[in-house]
Design goal:
The chain has 272 residues and is of the alpha+beta class. The protein has two domains: 82 residues, no CATH class; 165 residues, YojJ-like (1, CATH 3.40.1700. It has ten helices and eight strands. The chain has an eight-stranded mixed beta sheet, sandwiched between helices. A hairpin with a 6-residue loop joins strand 5 and strand 6. Helix 6 packs across helix 8. The longest helix is centred in the N-terminal third of the chain and has 22 residues. It is elongated. About 9% of the residues have low confidence.
Length: 272
């Protein structure tokens, strides 16, 4: 076996892992199990020479492929979006601790922290998206333009009950509030806790299609969570909240080891 063979096997193994991991996060995992059942049934039909059944399978397979592409078009689109991110390949094999990107303003982080836990104390639901490298213009256009400096009082006023802007998400870009009442894509990850509502699914959903960090305040429990890269970090305290944002943001190191294996199968984490 040559060095080239070893490299090819490693690449194929990593690709298979990421494809299977992607399947498990979406409705496509249910489809895969259904296909396996059909393959098993086809094998039985071949063994016992069920010619009519085999003829039906043979003549419907092309239609089935087209139907799968149409039904799971959102999942395929999301996979291509993730593949097209400029930091995708480097994120698999990076050995460097440093993460390039926008600098997270300390004053802005303090204001977000102050507003988040003020709203958590009175159980005011909130959804705040911190944009990073991937632009969120499509979601920005669904909201109302604000273009204001980030302040705790403004954030609290936006999410106050019965105010015109309290529905939807606030989008922050380059340390400024650019839009409010934004509609976000809901995650269809089947592993998400069934007790979580639309606000949490929206926060996770936008983190699945971008590198944004989403702040979520539960209206039911007052709990504070962060969503990043499809993972939900729950049970954050006033002390751990800003540290976790800095850790997830582009200007903070996370680990010096190769991280393609990190967090296998983990889509929800607790800091309690």
């Amino acid at each position: 076996m040559t060095v080239t063979d070893v490299i090819e096997i490693a690449i194929i193994a990593i690709l298979i892992y990421y494809i299977m991991d992607w399947f498990k996060k979406t409705r496509a995992w249910t489809l895969i199990k259904g296909i396996l059942v059909l393959l098993l049934f086809t094998g039985i039909a071949m063994i016992f020479q069920f010619n009519t059944i085999l003829w039906i399978f043979k003549n419907t397979i092309s239609v089935g492929v087209i139907a799968v592409i149409i039904i799971f078009q959102p999942e395929f689109r999301r996979a291509l979006e993730q593949l097209g991110r400029k930091n995708f390949i480097s994120s698999l094999f990076t050995m460097d601790d440093s993460k390039s990107g926008r600098v997270l303003d300390r004053k802005m982080l303090n204001e977000i922290t102050k507003a988040t836990f003020a709203m958590a104390e009175v159980k005011t639901g909130a959804l705040i998206v911190l944009e990073q490298d991937v632009r969120l213009g499509d979601y920005e256009r669904t909201g109302i333009t604000i273009d204001a400096e980030v302040s705790s009082q403004l954030l609290i006023n936006i999410f106050e009950h019965n105010t015109p802007l309290h529905d939807g998400a606030v989008l922050i870009r380059d340390n400024r509030i650019v839009s409010a009442t934004c509609y976000l894509p809901l995650s269809d990850n089947l592993d998400i806790n069934k007790s979580l509502g639309t606000r949490h699914r929206a926060g996770i959903g936008v983190s699945e299609v971008s590198d944004s960090i989403t702040v979520i305040v539960s209206e039911e429990t007052g709990g504070v969570s962060l969503a990043y890269n499809g993972t939900l970090y729950r049970g954050l305290t006033r002390e751990s909240f800003p540290k976790k944002i800095e850790e997830l943001s582009k200007n903070e190191p996370i680990t010096g080891k190769m991280k393609w294996w990190k967090g296998l199968g983990k889509h929800e984490k607790s800091n309690s």
